[in-house]
Amino acid sequence: MARLRHVGKPGSVADNLLRRFSLTDAAARKVATYSGGMRRRLDIAMSLIGNPPVIFLDEPTTGLDPQARIEVWNAVKQLSAGGTTVLLTTQYLDEAEQLADRIAILHEGRIIVNGTLAELKRLLPPASGIRRKTAEPRRRLPRPRRRKPQGRGRCECESRGDPTMSMHIIGDTAVLTGRSLKHVTRSMDTIITTAIVPIAMMLLFVYVFGGAISHGASSGTYVGYLLPGILLMTIASGISYTAFRLFTDMTTGIFGRFQSMPIARSGVLWSHVLTSLVANIISVAVVFAVAFIMGFRTGAGVWAWLAVAGILILFTLALTWVAVIPGLTAKSISGASAFSYPLIFLPFISSAFVPTSTMPAPVRWFADNQPVTPIVNTVRDLFAQQPGNSDIWIALAWMVGILVVAFAFAMVIYRRKIT
Fold this sequence. Notes:
Blueprint: H1 10-20, H2 36-47, E1 54-58, H3 66-81, E2 85-89, H4 93-99, E3 103-107, E4 110-115, H5 117-123, H6 169-185, H7 188-209, H8 222-252, H9 254-259, H10 265-293, H11 302-329, H12 333-338, H13 340-345, H14 361-368, H15 372-384, H16 391-418
């Protein structure tokens, strides 16, 4: 957070805030292991990065036990004593009495009265017994004053020339990407699904089914024939976690915090896209290493390898932007991840495992006209050093088309989310 706010010595700033809110001993622990009070104190500490003159706390003690509630109260009192203005919303009257210098009462979205605690007690005395008794029976609550609009169109809440609001796109995206990559390294199921499962599939088809599958005499070993399809399955498995991670950010509140900070809005999405790209490159490299151990060999030159790398990167970017859409729109974690199942299954109905000429006519027509087949054929031809054919142009058209359409839809949905 300190890096995203572009403060000097972000490590020292973080250490000081953790010490201030008595969280130093828990700094190395995952936030998921924190108690409710510790999480709220951490949330307040993050809000103080950059020494803001005003912070907003929306019902910070809701759902907390009494001890955690007192911890948050003490933190708020320290902020107020240190000169920070705290705008706090609460439904607890005792909390307002303990913390507030001034209290405003909202009704149907409007402030109907505000003042100090003593002023409100004089204005709104408590009822006693059965009879309703007031100190000033004819005094009415003041009507809220409406501010005249300053103009239509652009919101004036953000200064155009404010240097603190300048967008550091590259730096912000790099920080957010590092955050997402840490999440990947801490999740063993991600590593298992994206790398080990495709390798297990390759071992199964080569050593169990390979002897019974006819793939054509001119294609070399079956591991060489199979490898392009396994690579695409590896990428399809990996991008499902992009939707999962993005959905988690959207539903846990961190997305809202990012939106309130002076960071590049597009950096939030691009960080997930770049994380997917880096994670899939590593997974694909692992699959290549295992394939070489299993006997895969190719005489492809440097340009052919670069072409294969370019195709796999383009395929990853296209599917990742597809994954962004359910990550932004899904209603549940299972819904965010389930979209990838058809993508993982698609290589089975293509030329990835057997030639399409061996399939029944309707299945063959589908296999020949879906995007996986031309991509697999192109990668296979590059490894085999065979003359190029129309498959490469069909593959590029599919990937670029999917990328452009998915990117456009994702950005439209994202803009709706942040406005």
